[in-house]
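thread: overnight batch results

M.L. [08:02]
morning all. the overnight job finished for the chain we discussed friday. pasting input first so we're all looking at the same thing
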Amino acid sequence: MIVAKKAAKNLQSKGISVRLIDMHTIKPIDKEVIIKAAQETKGIITIEDGNLNGGLGSTVCQITADFLLQ
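M.L. [08:03]
and the structure it wrote out:
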């Protein structure tokens, strides 16, 4: 979370609006928060130190894709 906070502060100092969400667990995941962020922002970037395949990024991608296809 420290790296994400530093990145958010850096972007904000350059005039880029940032929303930082702490997704501390994948199971259960808060789908509503992810969908809300997708609706209200221009994009989602995930930062994680776990598996890239089947990790947070993959899960966020699947949730947003499922939402868009409804």
